[in-house]
Every structure is written in C-alpha cells, then in structure tokens.
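Both lines are retained for reference:
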Amino acid sequence: MADATQSSEDQRFLTFKSEGRLYALPAASVLEVVRMPPLARVPQAPRSLMGLANLRGSVLPVASVRALLGRQEAATHASRLIVLDGSSPVALAVDEVSNLVRVAVGKVKTAEADIASEAGEHLSGVFEIDADVTKILDVAELLRGGFEQSAPRRRAVAATVAAKTAENASIETIRQRLVTFEVAGQEYAFPLDAVREIVTTPESLMAIPGSDDAVRGVMPYRDGLLPLLSLRKLLGLPSAVLSREKVLIVTLGDVLIGFVADRTRAVLSVDPARVEPAPSVLAARAGGETQIKEIYRAGQGRLVSILAPERLFREEVMRKLTQGDTAMKAKAEENHRESDADKLRFLIFRLDDNEFALPIDAVDEVARVPDQITRLPKTPKFLEGVINLRGEVLPVVDQRRRFEMPPTTDGANRRLVVVRSDRHRAGLIVDGVSEVLRCSPDAVQPSPDLTGEALGLVHSVINLEASGRIVLLLDPSELLTRTERGLLDSFAKETRSKETRQTRP
C-alpha cells in the first residue's frame, strides 16, 4: 500500500461498511467490486476463509472481513466482494460498499492509526469525511493474522495428478471395473473404460423429427451436440417419466452417444472369475437380452447384466442421428480424436451442497453404506470402524465428521466410496455420488494459499470455467492420518497372525 503522506496528489479510497463501521481501501489496490457468487466451501479451513469463488475462470479465495477483524459472523451479512490486486489475488467479503472518495493528502492521518484501532483491527491510517471517521485497513497484516500462509507451491499440479492417476491404475490391473445403473428396477453395467462421463439429463432437449422411438433428443455437450438414446427403449422395457435421469456418455466408432438411465448405482471393482458370458440361449431370443454381453455374480443372489454398448441400437438409428448433420459428426470426430491420455477423470461426490473429487483410478468401487460396521476402541470419532469387504478388512471414515460438519438428516442417498492409496484402502461415507467428470489437465489448478491446514487434503481444485463450478480435489494419500494408518497396519497384522494360527495343524 502506498504511503499517503508521501504523495503530492489526493488519494482515492473505496469505502465500505462492516458491522456499521466505516472502512477504506486504497482504490489502486482494488481490481473490481462484484456481487457475492456461489462459493466452494473448503473443509477445516480457517474461520476467515468463506470459500473459493470462480471469477471469470480464476479461482479466488474469499475472506470475510468480519472474521478477519475477529467479530461474529452473520450467515447472510456479505453482499459484495472487493477483489484486490496482487501476486496472489484475494476477495474480501463486506457488508456493503459505500463510495469511491478522493481525500487530500493532509487529511490522511497515519500517526492516529494505532490510537483509532479497536481490538482485531490493523490500520494504516484514518481520515474524516462529513464528520465520519473512516479507517484505512492494512489488509496484508489482517491476512497474515487470519491465515497460516503456506510456502510457495511451485509444482505442476496437473502433472502430479496425472502421475498419481497412472500410479494408482498400475496398482490393480487384474480386477475389472464396472459402472452400474438402474433401468426399470433392474441393474445393468457398462465397463468403466467405455464411459467417458456421467452427467444429469438437462431439463430441455432438442427433438429430432422422424427419429427412432429410442432417440430422446439432442443436448449440448462440450461446444457440440450429443444425441441421447433411452436405455428403457433400447432394452425393450416400459417407458416412464422420471426426474434427474443420468446420461452415460460413451464413444462408439467416430461419434459420442449419451445413454439415458433411470439412475446410476455404483462403481464396482470385480473379480473376473465372477464374470461369466451370457448364456447362449439369451442370444437366440429377441428383445433386451440380446444386448447382454456378460453377467456379474455379485453375491447374495444379486446379478448385474453387463451391456455391450455397440449392440444397443440398430445401424439405421445411428445413420438418422448423423446423416445430414455434418457439424454434429465433425464435432464428435474431433472429440473422438482427443487422446484419453490427455484427459483426466474424476468421481464427484457431495457433502451437503459442496462438491469434492477423487481421481477415478483411485476409486475401487461405490456402494451403499453397510448396515453393520464394527467399532474400534480408542479411535478418532470420524473413524466409524471396519467392515469385511470380500475378505479384506476395510476402515470406514465418516467424511462429514472428518470435515467437522454436522450430521446429515437425509441418509437415504449416502454412499460408501472405496478409495485406494499406496498401501491402504478406506471406505468414505459421503452424502451422495453425482457424476464421473472428464476434464483436461489445464482445469486442475493449485488451491489458493489461504487455506491453512486444509491444504493436506485439498491440494488442488478443478476449475470448470464454462459452468462457473469449482470442485475441490482431494488427495487420496491424505485421507487417513499417520496415526490412523499405523492403527490399521497394526490391526491388519494382528488379523493375519490370527489367520496363520488358525490354519496351523
């Protein structure tokens, strides 16, 4: 901040209010003033950090002036953001912006700053306008007091995430992974490798006149158009009007197709020995059975039909979708030519209205929260206990408790996300799983430095500029603390010792 006493010209200040008090910032340090946008809340962040905002493609930390001054927060107090310039831009949430004023040099009193400051305030000067005393905030000092500044992080975050993804993918190559979904009360699956993304069906679709009954219409997708086909129709199942259906986006030949399912159910890591070819008698029948390639025996009488996407529709359907629409086909071909190595995929889950992401290759499966969880004594409160998942001891972490969030009142959609790190697997209880997201490495950016201890878990953010979304990217290796990892190592060692003693003659 420039010293106002050394300038030969009048100084300009932006004035604003916080809890009825009048403050000011040098106008030269202000980039702009905007309305409060949607925020991505950072778990376990300092009280001063309200969250992260997407401002025209840039991720900005939003700091509450009330909290920086050590005062009580009000849920809806902030109406404006003052975006500050600097090497690490930050936005200040204030009650209201008052005016842009010009103050003569002699009226800015720096010597009175200490006398005029109240508890929690850091001032660089004061001035008086219309008998109102206005305090000039020393923002740099306020931020130093309100946040634990992290060391500069000069790393290629996208390369790090890609390396972790490749590393996780090499840990387990034997098991097959499936995305399961529900159609008319029945469970089906696509191989995970065949699914580019999972998104929610938009409220309105563009109809295609004269198309097959299975064609639901066309939706916008990544600056192009995506044809949607109803799995109910393709499988010969009864029609129904449902809300919030899911679209599984699959590449077939040189086009992208969106298959509409009632809802997605799980991501499963399955033993190939439990996957069997569909009985030959099914191939001889007409109807939906012809599209079933394999059947997964999930246990307890549960069978999952694995579909072959290329068998789901007749050739004339695809010709109608693409014939005469060269723009659609050109865009689909362009998307198809994109190398999968240049794209990253993430599983998105929710805690309240907050979105979090995990690299898809670090996720073994997604399932319902089990009814029985064995509690462990003398463990952190967010460690719910352990379960036996197909013969392996798996710790279960309540992610809401881990992030110090209140318990949810709606547990119907809760899911267990099984995550893998270098040495451990853990099940995370989350409010719900929303989609599989595919994005370029450029969308993965370092989280701003004003995040304190939360940097251990949230090392990066996925910045979706087109939609204005910010998704917090969690580091799978940091989901369990060192103490918890040691506890699980001891528990697993004890379990193996018991099994060895039981098998000795």
User: Anything to note?
Assistant: The chain has three domains: 4-146, 173-339, 343-439+475-503.
